[in-house]
Amino acid sequence: MLGLPEAISVALFDLDGVLTSTAVLHRNAWKQAFDAYLSERDPKNWVPFTEQDYLDYVDGRPREDGVRAFLHARQIDDVDPETVTAIGSGKNAQFVATLDAQGVDPYPGSVRYLDAAKESGLRIAVVTSSKNGAAVLDAADLTKYVEARVDGLDIVDRGLRGKPAPDSFLLGAELMGVTPDNAAVFEDAISGVEAAVAGKFGYVVAIDRVGGGQADAMRAAGADLVVNDLDELVSA
Predict the structure, then answer these.
(1) Residue 182 lies in a domain
(2) Alpha carbon distance 58, 182 (integer Å)
């Protein structure tokens, strides 16, 4: 009833954009941080950060990896590490302030899927590049579903490579005591889909909340299935 192969016993969920609507908060915070930097660097000729920039260079990646990827795409390669850290820290401060002020809601379809997963015995972990994973789960009242969590703090502490490398998902599977072929990955970012494919996970479900060409890009990246909402996978 969960739309997964029989061999799958563990579900590894990305957080922002998969279980919660916080991807929008992240995107807006990144826009403020990058636009502030770009406008100060070149006041006359700067080009604003776009939603497509977020999807192509930032979404799903650890914070400083996303900064470097976006700046490189803009042919800005002369930025020192302190500036990279400052841009990322500014973004995170804006995100946390918005989270505190507005809170966060889980997607109803995702909650329905989590309830069905619990009922069926599918074990649940969260794997996110965000260093705010615990706070977001608590704010959305989702912690009760999660057996294990890998977040941006773990990625730094353990010296893991961020998505699109598979390291964080492989750690999630390890913490759950299964091999990748017995775990399904649920992702909304192309970098996350690529990470799951690189890790040879048993099934990759992509959630397209963007539209346009995103679903085709997800399939091209290796997703086994693309849905618009997780409750599409719950049998009526």
Answers:
(1) yes
(2) 29
C-alpha 208/C-alpha 231 separation (Å) is: 13
Q: Are residues 115 and 221 both part of a single domain?
A: yes
Is the domain of 60 the same as that of 32?
A: yes
Backbone φ and ψ for 204, nearest 5 degrees, come out as -125, 115
Of the pLDDT bands very low, low, confident and very high (cuts 50, 70, 90), residue 114 is: very high
- Active site residues per annotation: 14, 16
**Full-model pTM:** 0.84
Strands 183-187 and 123-127: unpaired
pLDDT higher than 50, residue 236 = no
Q: Which domain holds residue 53?
A: 24-102
Q: Is residue 65 predicted with pLDDT exceeding 80?
A: yes
Mean pLDDT along residues 60-82:
94
Q: Which of 64, 86, 102 is the last residue of a domain?
A: 102
Final residue belonging to a domain, choices 53, 69, 102:
102
Residue 166, preceding bond cis, omega within 30 degrees?
no
Nearest to 11 by CA among 21, 2, 1, 23: 2
Of 138, 158, 224, 116, which Cα lies nearest the Cα of 126?
138
Domain assignment of residue 178, yes or no = yes
pLDDT of residue 24: 86
For residue 109, which of 232, 231, 1 has the smallest C-alpha distance? 231
